[in-house]
Amino acid sequence: MPTNPPKIKVLSCGNERLQKLKEAFHGKYGQMPLFYACAPGRVNLIGEHIDYCGYAVLPMAIEQNILAAVSVNDSQSIQLANTDPKYKDFSVSVDRISIDKDNPQWYFYFLCGVKGIQEHLSLSSLSGMSCVVDGTIPASSGLSSSSALVCCAGLVTMEANQKSLSKVTLAETCAKCERFIGTEGGGMDQSISFLAEKGTAKLIEFNPLRATDVRLPDGAVFVIANCCVEMNKAATSHFNMRVVECRIATKMLAKARGLQWSQLQKLGELQMELQASLDEMLELVEEVLHPEPYSTEEICKTLSISTEHLRENILSTNTQHATHFKLYQRARHVYGEAARVLQFKAVCDSVPVNAVAQLGDLMNQSHVSCRDLYECSCPELDQLVDICLQVGAVGSRLTGAGWGGCTVSMVPSEKIDYFLQTVRERYYTPDARRSALEKQSLFVTRPGGGAAIFTEE
Ligand code: ADP
Ligand code: NG1
User: Fold this and answer.
1) Residues 333-345 pLDDT 10s
2) Does the annotation count 189 as an active-site position?
3) What is the domain range of residue 279?
4) Which is the closest atom of ligand 2 to the Cα of 186?
5) Gap from CA of 145 to ligand 1 centroid (Å)
6) Which one is catalytic: 100, 189, 218, 382?
7) Would you say 183 and 239 are in contact if contact means Cβ atoms under 8 Å apart?
8) Quick one: 241 and 256 in the same domain?
9) CATH number of the structural domain spanning residue 438
10) What is the pTM of this model?
């Protein structure tokens, strides 16, 4: 497999979207783009909220992506425009890049990618760039529009500065730099955006980052359905609260086992340290943690630390206000979900006769765990999952961060027409807003390719 993102020669006149983007670019900057870059969104089939705990996940890239047209300028500035008027123009001098965590505007995600590559390559000066961005991934819907934008910006910056980096380095760099916006994600989105290959889902493992093909069984298709509730991760504390709860659970479990807990941050690291199985980790959770929420006082007392220490070293900036932490529920979800990912991969590899039913079961268990233990679902997602299961899906679950956004369902191929029509009738048509969004909200998806650079022939 080639290690660098592909550079593809294209004819924009054969591609309506590229042609339109080229025209928009010309209208904005009065010149032609030098090159284009695209990075896909993703749908996670199973393995939710466990990447930042160090565990493997199982996503595939989707066809929807972020595409940018780019030229290099000599004005020493980064000029950004967007084909969607909702995203306003922005310009900044290359030596004045800063990212405001308290105000997650679209261009700050772009600047995350720019800054990440600059720091990784230790570039003392950056080329000026003029860009127009065009996106087709529904935003704040669990399909990784933000990471696709960060990855696209990272790739653009690499190319505009005439550098070359491997897909793995780009993925790791973009995973790290998206955290400049404040969310403490785990790297799944950026990894699949760069490492995806058409026709196959991937098992993504971390530390070291690697991607293994997962062939999905014949006879079923995956359908994405958006519940039409948006949840912006960077603008709320839900996401980081879960990251923090997992971090505290790691330390409390480590302390109970007499380990040096202060350096341990992830539930996965703790498992490695203990050399235990996932089942044994679940037993440890039952033995050590209690289901009632932990107060700040109880945590500080158990770890023998001050509240200031907790706030400064363990909590994130946007979770400073938190007073209660559900450690038992979060840890149970993470260890259970990590096991389900491995079971899903094993079923795809061995393809038993009832493979589709087994995978569906695992997806259903995942949703229940996200809903009840991790509490990252919402009534609309639960309703949509129920409808999908009633009308033919063998498995259905929320995908991505949750609290809104999309479900992914596994549907036997022969039932797909009835499924799509009935979900439409039951979830979208009765509500005017949903109905207006239905076309981009309910669709069959197949594993797509990863990020790439295009130049015109
Ligand atoms: P997701 O789950 O899609 O990653 P987030 O809430 O983390 O959702 O990020 C969504 C943000 O990403 C948007 O608010 C916007 O700032 C940015 N974004 C998404 N799509 C685009 C786009 N096409 N153009 C510009 N910015 C975009
Ligand atoms: P989305 O669905 O893109 O908000 C987020 C995290 C992932 C992962 C999932 C939950 C970022 C950039 N992405 O994805 O790393 O933790 O939630 O599985 O933070």
Assistant:
1) 999 999 999 999 9
2) yes
3) 237-331
4) 15
5) 5
6) 189
7) yes
8) yes
9) 3.30.70.3170
10) 0.97
